[in-house]
Amino acid sequence: MPYMFTKISFSEPDVRYYRLAITLGMVTCYVLETLWCWAVLDVVPQVDPCLSIDYTNTSTTGCLPPGYTLQSAEENGEISTVPFSRVLDDSYPMYSWVGTVISVFIMISITVSYTFNSTVLCQTVEGVVSSVWRISWNRCDFKLASSEVIVAIAANFFLMTVIFVVALFNPQSFVIIVSKAMSIANNFGVGFYISIMMWRCTGKNFQYLEIPLPLSKFQVKLQYLVSVFFMLATVWGVVSWILESI
């Protein structure tokens, strides 16, 4: 959102439409994720009903072949789309096209997610490089803007290469990082850093700035409740990850 906000004009109508677009986008994602979870839980079994038996023997009544449950997907580091497509292909062949459409949608979703997170990471790296560069060089009045850009590009390229290599050669670790670490990092970022930004920008030092569409007093106070919520989500994510690892 901060990256997109820099691309709109600093006027009340554009900011209002931007907020509306963000809200509608979040509501759309919420509805789609709810429908997706409902479809997966309705089609894919969560566990094998006869785990005590060698379930590679599919002739046993009630047993499922390997890779047909959400539990097996978690153990193999797979997303829920994999067992979902297998169940559709074998049990509901007339709906196999649904699995194909969902696979294409997941591919597009992962690409968009990678691009989005990469953009955020690149902006963070550029901000860190810019801050360190100014602290290190501005005292000497060296105007090395081109060198700063080169260092930022090199740092971004290095980080993107590391992430791509991990995703290519160790996809299970990449899935864990995306599903666990990224969620915890995003919750912590919203609960801690965004709260500090809100607290500072509503202080007396910035009251003279002209804001095209300021937040209401209720929205400003609501930030504390939002901060508590996301910090609790961060703690819960860390604790659940530790408990799963034990």
Short description:
By secondary structure, the protein is mainly α. Helix content is 73%, strand content 0%. The longest helix has 42 residues, at 96-137.
Q: What is the overall silhouette?
A: globular
**Intertermini distance:** 37 Å
Count of alpha/pi helices: 8
Annotation, overall tally of beta strands: 0
Overall description:
With 246 residues, the chain is mainly alpha-helical. Helices cover 73% and strands 0% of the residues.
List keywords for this structure.
globular, 73% helix, 246 residues, mainly alpha
Outline the secondary-structure elements.
Elements: H1 2-5, H2 12-43, H3 70-75, H4 81-91, H5 96-137, H6 145-169, H7 171-201, H8 217-245
Helix pairs in contact: 4-5, 5-6, 6-7, 7-8
